[in-house]
Amino acid sequence: MSVSLYGSGQTILQVVQVVNTSTFTYSGTNSTWFDVTGWSATITPNSTNSKILIIYNGCISGSTSGTYGSFTKIQKNGSDIGVGASRGSATNATVGTNTSGPTYSVLHQATYLDSPATTSATTYKIQAWAESGVGPTVVGGSVNSGNSYNTNTPYIITLLEVSGS
Predict the structure, then answer these.
(1) Which residues are bridge partners to 14 per DSSP?
(2) Is the dihedral of CA 82, 86, 91, 96 positive or negative?
(3) How many structural domains are present in the chain?
(4) Which of 5, 34, 73, 144 is deepest in the core (most CB within 10 A)?
(5) What digits encode the pLDDT tens for the residues 10-65?
(6) Which residues constitute the domain of residue 75?
(7) Residue 154 maps to which CATH number?
(8) What pTM does this model have?
(9) Of 35, 43, 1, nearest to 18 (Cα)?
């Protein structure tokens, strides 16, 4: 079944959504990109003219000391898409956030329209990067879980195939 977008002449042909309700913990090297298990989805476009609307959101927290920054980016079949242009030593990302305190979770969300020009299965995944002084980085909630102000949140990726025009 397809859904017409009012007044646009375009149709949503299919929707793929992956929702993770458990946390993902990364304990590897800080200040480096890492894959987040379950923050990916695969779609097979019906036409080479189709576009894929990528929508993602999820909370990231880390660092048990110091300030904390985190970034996310979209990858299509292993290559970056939807990231900022290179500038000095800055990190190219889709979303970048910063918080003044450690262990607080920060929402990452973005929407990006891609033109894959293929009818082959295409995988979109979200990678994360964390500036973390000490300790792990958590996707899907707070590093700490001992208080009611700590969070557990889903991290979600949604792919919508939109007919080309």
Answers:
(1) 161
(2) negative
(3) 1
(4) 73
(5) 899 999 999 999 999 988 777 789 999 999 999 999 999 999 999 999 998 876 66
(6) 3-162
(7) 2.60.120.1340
(8) 0.89
(9) 43
